[in-house]
Amino acid sequence: MYVVPPPERSDSGSNGDLRVYQTWKGSNIFFLQGRFVFGPDVRSLALTICLIAVPVTVFCIFVAWKLMDDFSDDWGVSIVAVAIVFTIYDIILLLLTSGRDPGIIPRNAHPPEPEPLDSNMDAGAGQTPQLRLPRIKEVELNGITFKVKYCDTCMLYRPPRCSHCSICNNCVEKFDHHCPWVGQCIGLRNYRFFFMFVFSTTLLCIYVFAFCWVYIRKITESEHTTIWKAMLKTPASIVLIIYTFIAMWFVGGLTAFHLYLISTNQTTYENFRYRYDRRSNPHNKGVVDNFKETFTSAIPPSKNDFRAMVHREPPLPPRSVAGGFMSPNMGKASDDIEMGRKAVWADMGSEEHGDAKNDNNERLHVRDGELGELSPDVRTTVDEQSDRPGMRRSSWGRKSGSWDMSPEVMALAARVVEQNQNGGGSSSGSGLVTENRPT
Question: Which of 154, 168, 171, 179 is catalytic?
């Protein structure tokens, strides 16, 4: 028996010189060579920053700066300073929320090993049992049973409280929601910063709203006029009052909602999907402990090193399942050997080296000196795989069946015949003999 050796494949296209963020399969966008990871809608981050910075700039120029004349030196300067510092702090929280790994679970390179069906456990040794990959599994955590689902995209069973974000295309731990205003998923590693950002934005709106009314009140007292005439003298204050009033309803309501979620140890996804108020919440530890878990517990490190170098993973060996063999790369050479097919290694690179129509003439590379050694006793019985239309697969060890020549052996036979013809009829003792077994 002769097996064509695997061709030497060039490593010029390997991923050895690339980093993880350069080959990332999710929809994330990376900055500074993988140091910051954002969602695919990161452009909305610029809009959010403008919605914060522009009103504060207007407030400092047209309101806070003029209030410096109505208060003592220390108080007047502090009004402007607090607005500027609070805005910088708010934007930093926004960037901490948007530019970090929210808790992405790395994808598996191969799906988990399927489980044989119970009804086929007693199958004979010569038969491969039917395999299955259950969609839902039950796992026990701290005495509580959870149902975990299998993710086809990430090829893993999601841990409890994990969900797959369709926008970022990643499984995220303790997934809360995908926020378009920050351009990132909100999960285990950035929920704390997200809440602090929303809460600080609410306080900033209240601060600007309050001092705009203080400025209008100072105008009415200094000019002895009505409040309506005073408002006409400072249109910037009117615009800021309307803007911050609308914003307070949005971010203030969001803050109140997340305070409720934190106190009951829920996520937004769980609140809308499972409705724990109708049944017991297995994650609820009490109000105090729930707040401690959110704000005082250590943030776990990221499971992804986006700046690490990518290493080529070796192919997994075939796995034996109740007398049958299953390989993670179905149809490859190792699987072909177990099913009775002669392994032709060039099949693995046919897609990389050219069109399939030309592969039969180019995939065999045998030196002329080896032809004499091959031809005397080369007999091949080929069980064609199911990927060829119109052919059926024979079981291992079967004595009768449909046996057909593979294109690779036909090409080898043609080369032997051509060599013998060139040798002047010397092929009578060194021909390639093939055997077809009838059905």
Answer: 179
